[in-house]
Amino acid sequence: MPKGITIDVPEPTRINIKGASKEDVGQVAAEVRKIRPPEPYKGKGILYRGERIRRKAGKTGKTAGAGAAK
Q: Dihedrals φ, ψ of 25, to 5°?
């Protein structure tokens, strides 16, 4: 962690990263996010404040007759 960066955890689901250099703050935030990037199927992961995940539809299951006529 670079000098001058402070990390605060006010809640179990929130991390605040503060510092004088915007570049250093962004780099630390990117390294933290790399641990668990947001995934589009369940909407879990580490998000930046105000960020929204575009959800994808998962597999809808197999239909009754699909693939049986081989």
A: -60, -45
Q: Domains of the chain, with CATH numbers?
A: 1-56 (3.90.930.12)
In order, the DSSP letters of 25-45 are HHHHHHHHHHHS---TTT--S
Dist. CA 17–CA 32, nearest whole Å: 10
Q: How far apart are the first and last CA of the chain?
A: 58
Tokens of 7: 């990390």
What's the pTM?
A: 0.68
- Please identify every stretch of the chain with a pLDDT value under 50, giving residue numbers as ranges: none
**Amino acid, single-letter form, for residue 52:** R
